[in-house]
Amino acid sequence: MPYVPEPWSFDDVLKLTKISPAYWRATFNAPPLNLFTPRTYKALRTLVELLENDQAVKVIVFDSSAPDYFMAHYDLLAREGNENAEGAEASPESEWPGFVLRFARLSAVTIAEVRGRARGLGSEFILACDIRYASLEKAIISQPEVGAGITCGGGGIEWLPIVVGRSRALEILLGSEDFDAATAAQYGYINRAIKDAELSAFVDGFARRVAGFDRKPLLETKQAVNDRAGLPRLSDLTASLNTFSKSCTWPESTKRIQTLFEMGLQQDGPLERDMGQHLPKVSVKLYGKKEDA
Fold this sequence. Notes:
Elements: E1 6-10, E2 14-20, E3 23-28, H1 38-53, E4 59-64, E5 69-71, H2 85-88, H3 92-104, E6 109-114, E7 117-119, H4 121-128, E8 131-135, E9 140-142, H5 156-164, H6 166-175, E10 179-180, H7 181-187, E11 192-194, H8 196-211, H9 215-229, H10 234-247, H11 251-263, H12 270-273, H13 275-287
Parallel strand pairs: 3-4, 4-6, 5-7, 6-8, 7-9, 8-11
Antiparallel strand pairs: 1-2, 2-3, 9-10
Helix pairs in contact: 1-3, 3-10, 4-5, 5-6, 11-13
């Protein structure tokens, strides 16, 4: 008998479909922005536990139900205790460094199918995936933290030099600009930029191809690449997360973030859609002119 896809749901923010025993899909489902919250983290942690304990799965694809946002960024309001008590049980701010390395070491091949915006932790999540494919017309990827007055805390500082090199990592991190998929592919930020109409079919075809191979050579090859190409160090990820937490309390950062909220942060509008263009305007609002330094 043909395999019947089995739908799962993790608190509705992450939906899992088992296309076959060897091929799964996980869909971020918190529209309109797909903000990363403690609930998202809790769902991801549950998914990783399933993947670690299932010897049949060989590949998992991550995508989004929100057409304009793969994952906007981390929910900054969650830091202020506005998340419900259930969500607070799983704290990405204390567990993320260890968790993201655990995720990177999964035996299953992890693929990000990026359509829409992936900024901040959204960018850092796809960087932790093994392979990244993005919509040529619709994907926008960035690390906007410096422009918002804070620092990366989810691994951008660690992952980017590995995948794009030191100088391009500094350009991405310090410039806080939005990258279209074509430029991101040129830099190595993603594997390929693919026409939107062809993206899902391409990713599905690749996932099915990998799922059809034997598990042992897939696992041994992934482990060897991780060992030889290198993963971020836990100590570095932890240090970056600690600096991020501190940066959110700097007086200048507090002013910038408050101004961004006044401009529409975490609402589906001009700021979230074109954040790279709007970040320099914060200095104008705060100081009346662009900062010289």
